[in-house]
């Protein structure tokens, strides 16, 4: 349900930005944060202590958090150029980048669910 909420909210953010509905976009961003916080967000911090030896939990948690920060940094570097490329300079099309993020999350989640369902 967390992934579904995050994907839907990303598409709604994109629609809200393209249509000029600031309140809808704001509510969708809050919905994304809530969906992420109750599902995908804490997964590394819950899973690492369960699957690793006690003496490695701190180091693995640090690696997981560092990896998260590095990936977020590079996504941040790509965000504005990708938004500008997809919008073609039209301010009414700046929400298209959220469609790409939503589609990426949906495809990745589907692939992972299929891989781990076996």
Number of domains: 1
Q: In this structure, how is the largest beta sheet organized? A: none
Low-confidence stretches are none
Q: What's the tally of helices?
A: 5
Return the CATH architecture: Up-down Bundle
Quick overview of this protein structure:
The radius of gyration is 17 Å and the shape is elongated. It has helices at 2-19, 22-38, 43-51, 57-87, 96-117.
Describe this entry's structure for a reader:
With 118 residues, the protein is mostly helical. The protein has a single domain, classed as Growth Hormone, Chain: A, CATH 1.20.1250. Helices cover 82% and strands 0% of the residues. The chain contains five helices and no strands. It has helices at 2-19, 22-38, 43-51, 57-87, 96-117. Helix 1 (2-19) packs antiparallel against helix 2. The longest helix is centred in the middle third of the chain and has 31 residues, at 57-87. It is elongated, with a radius of gyration of 17 Å. The mean pLDDT is 92. Keywords: Membrane, Transmembrane, Transmembrane helix, Transport. InterPro entries: GLUT, MFS_sugar_transport-like, MFS_trans_sf.
Main attributes of the structure:
118 residues; mainly alpha; Growth Hormone, Chain: A
Secondary structure topology:
Layout: H1 2-19, H2 22-38, H3 43-51, H4 57-87, H5 96-117
Helix pairs in contact: 1-2, 1-5, 3-4
């Amino acid at each position: 349900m967390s992934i579904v909420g995050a994907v839907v909210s990303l598409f709604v953010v994109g629609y809200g930005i393209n249509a000029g509905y600031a309140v809808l976009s704001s509510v969708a961003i809050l919905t994304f944060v809530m969906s992420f916080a109750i599902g995908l967000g804490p997964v590394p911090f819950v899973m690492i202590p369960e699957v690793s030896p006690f003496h490695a939990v701190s180091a693995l948690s640090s690696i997981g958090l560092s990896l998260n920060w590095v990936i977020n940094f590079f996504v941040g570097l790509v965000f504005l150029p990708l938004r500008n490329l997809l919008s073609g300079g039209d301010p009414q099309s700046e929400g298209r980048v959220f469609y790409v993020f939503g589609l990426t999350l949906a495809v990745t989640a589907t692939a992972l669910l299929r891989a781990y369902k076996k």
